Amino acid sequence: MTTARTETEVYRPFAGALRPSRLRCLPLAAAGVRVAVKRKLPLLLLYAPSAITTIVFSFVVYGKFTLEASIERGDAPPGMAMAAALAGTIAEVRRLLIQALMNTQVFALLVVTWYGSGLIAEDRRLGANLLYFSRPLTRLDYVLGKLLTVLAFGALAMLAPVLVICAMAAFSSPEWSFVKQESDVIWKAAAFASLWVVSLGLGVLALSSLVKRKALAVAGAFAFYMINQAFSGVLVALFDDPDLRRVSVLENFLRIGHWMFALDEADGHRTWPVADSFWILAGVNALFVAILAWRVRKLEVVA
Amino acid sequence: MPAAPVLELRDLSKSYGRVPALSGLTLSLPPGAVGLLGPNGAGKTTLLKLLLGLLRPSSGSATIAGLDPRRRADRLELRRRVGYMPEGDCLLPGMNAVEVVATLGRLTGLSASDAMKRAHETLDYVGVHEARYREVDQYSTGMKQRLKLAQALAHDPELLLLDEPTNGLDPRGRREMLALIHDLGHAQGKHVLLCSHLLPDVERTCGHVVVLDRGRVAESGRIADMTVSDGAWVDVDVGGDADAFAAALADAGVDHERGAPLRFRVRLPADGGAVADGCAADADPLFELARASGAWIAGVRGERSTLEDVFLRTLESGGDRP
Predict the structure, then answer these.
(1) Are A280 and A265 in contact (CB under 8 A)?
(2) What is the ipTM, given to two decimal places?
């Protein structure tokens, strides 16, 4: 940003032309990201866990394949034994990747809540909606702009670590064996991370649109996810029915995650049909969208 | 030939629940600077928001340059052509002034480089200099008002809707803000709709005024026309036999007061018209009386009502005037 001053103090008509764009949400999203990254401390604190997870898991994955390569070069067991070792390594890396994904879920919740909570609440408090909606900006542009802002932060917290670990596994594995054998886990991890971040983003924005203070929206978001988790636990304890975990949004995400990655449900905690989880999450997200549509309409058309 | 109206209202009404804010406004506003005057609660801000499509009318319609804010495509187009300066503290959280103006410019359709250039140009114009890199949360009221004007100018709109732009300003800041508005409305060729409850602000910057009272148009017209008093009092300097002139005025039944030996304050006869802008052609009956009484008239100056007189008179008459 230049600091030059013209000091003219005369009005200069604009000689160029306005270029109406369909992607009006992008400048809004870019402005949101720019404002959010101005404060360095939250950035550092919130992304440190994700960064540490990424680094640790990347090294572990790298170590697994490097170890295997040394076995291949040295006096390692030939033939069948070597193939078995490689298969075991790849399976282990897959497990590590899923574990990293599940770990970053919580970090993404923190990040999305922190960066998304103020996006609409602060606009309401400071009357920014009047400035935005006196521009050629539709309500959809506004919501998309805010959602893209929050998705950018959420993706950085959850999607980026997974992709970095996948890249590490892909480049470290001999003959791209990880990509060839486990390509499904890469796109499934990306899909799961996207689903989680989009759902979180919609929820946090919906809560943000209901209040005028960021702190209230932060508290509301944590309350929403924690209370329904605790409530589901109480229901399970009361009725001794593990399927009542479905009441919790987080449990439904776990159910979908376990289904996607074919994880063992030996503990019998999440045995309900996965379709139920998809329906429940679709309903919850539809509720978030409805709240957003209602509140943002009130932001544009003020009465 | 009169210029095409910039803004047209047809039977425009808006109610908040059962409380009417605007009632059947029908009006055409000419190009140039127009003042929207009225006491608090008259419906000025409501009208501006209706024009931008920020409110939906209960009935009737409003168009700006032929664009109807009720239609989505028109609304987006007119927001490209209009700059809006809201009344209250409206800020984009966490940004400095350059970012605020550039971001809003981008949203209006400016490219990134044009938006940054326009941000600096408009901030220079409104007089926000070094402070432009401070977060706007730390700005004084005066700085915020200037910033709001700058953001309204970011995309160089044809029409400016300014809602109480001098609110909260100190005398110097107010003078500077009015100078900017005058410049925009007169030298820069912008159409300005200035919404204010401060009569001197409108009088100083606008050529045309609409007086709103309780949601109705109480008065509308050119300020120059409205401030000519109906009774047409004039100050008359005479030479020669002033006493004989006074007697002649009395004999003719003309209301007058003698302020100084050679100066009279005279109410022109009803058919004598008005003395506007220094033109004494309509004061012919006085010249006749002076000639007949052996005096001569050295000067005639029209005595104008202030806009305040018009405003108070309008409100006192309950807005029944046509």
Answers:
(1) no
(2) 0.82
